[in-house]
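W.,

You were right to be curious about this one. When I first looked at the sequence I had no strong expectations either way, so I just let the prediction run and decided to look at it fresh. Below is the sequence, 97 residues in total, followed by the output.
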Amino acid sequence: MPKAIWQGVVIAEASTDAVQLVEGNVYFPPQAVHAKYLKASSHHTVCSWKGIASYYDVVVPGAINANAAWFYPQPKEAAKDVAGFIAFWRGVQVLES
């Protein structure tokens, strides 16, 4: 069961069959992510085959990790399986438990 953890706080947790693996990143379904730790960011990036990514800051008591989570709200056809799924980086550990 993959978990996303930052500053000792579990940000997301999902069964293995619920996640999507793309380019070495674990994408968690939205229902597996604790939304109380995410704050919408105005940051966006573009991937040539997935489309426009939107970002969240990961916010836990006493700490903010800017743009540490991303998702594709309307991905291109090639990445449709990750629509709305959330991935992490910038020090957020994704562990298989």
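Here's what jumped out at me. The CA atoms of residues 2 and 96 lie 4 Å apart. And, maybe more interesting for your project: DSSP finds no helices and nine strands in the chain.

Coffee later to discuss?

I.
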